[in-house]
């Protein structure tokens, strides 16, 4: 209702001035304060339209409806000066004179100060709540706690699973054993409702909420007065067990090492297959296998039915890619694509430091996972841009076949980009045990990339 009243007042002002309303940019429930982290897509679109000349005036109900950040207000006034659009509020502020801009700036500073004082009061109230042993009510639901209970009530069935998992871990069993137990009992993860994996089980036991530990801005405050699945002592025991089992990832272990990683799918459960080096009976080789501890496309764990030698699959796919490239007509080279290597390295370093802070207990679980999700999203965007640029470059390569035949480690991503122009996915099926002869070609099913439609065809 507040938004409607503000819009009515703004329309009346436009009518008084003889201005035609081109578009309304509403941002209901999106704060303009200094403490808000939400993006303001409507505000950004409005500024783009104003700078592009799509609109030649901006009308707001009051200055604190436009922004409560003094820096953002200053930037707004600079943009108005540079691009010449008009500005008006229903409270009568005038930006055409120096005195008017000064008054507007003072009002903006007052609005920011009110927001900051409100934030201080809220933070003081939150701290007082924590000191009384009341847990933080926000954030996504944690396994074991009742939905919508603000972490003050538990789900008995989930608590029973957490406690059974605790006894398994304290009996020298693994998080994988706990995941299998929970899956066998029909339990599913919170939110995504998928099967439990090792990492998801660890995430539950790493949460301070499970041990009834109340924290504020990364600092421990005390014990929760509300029910929780484990005692503090039990939670600390689990941390010691998990820390003792943790191993540092090898340098560069997160990088792709095989050309067809990500393209291979299990023919039975459609899960993405993994490729790794294996040593069996003294023989070391690469194998592609369906990982029975990884959640597949259907939200269930992989079936684990397929384990194949990767070399044979790689040779067949290489033949297909070479045949496709040999028929491709060379195209003129394009301008060099942007180099995102340093940006990717910087984000990977930020993720590493974030993980280190979390392991050292300097961050709450929900803050850590929220930040990790955000950074991983940014990293995925950069890698998508890299892949798109590599695909575009591969498609316009003057001699793609020559690039493809360069099997150096530095050329891996370019080779994968070339594969992405030929192969969509490969379904891999089991060939049974103890086979001596080469597998049949029908044991893999290749889905090529759909050809672009010919514009001359009806």
Can you give a write-up of this model?
It is a single chain. α4 runs antiparallel to α5 (98-131) and α7 crosses α8. The protein has helices at 2-17, 41-52, 63-66, 70-83, 98-131, 156-170, 175-184, 198-206, 232-245, 310-326, 341-359, 365-395, 400-404, 412-420; strands spanning 57-60, 86-89, 213-216, 219-223, 264-266, 274-280, 283-289, 307-309, 423-428, 444-448. It contains 14 helices and 10 strands. β6 (274-280) and β7 form a beta hairpin. The strands form 4 sheets. It has a 3-stranded mixed sheet with strand order 5-9-10, with no helix packed on it. A 3-stranded antiparallel sheet has the order 6-7-8. With 458 residues, the chain is mainly alpha-helical. The chain starts with a helix and ends in a 10-residue tail after the last strand.
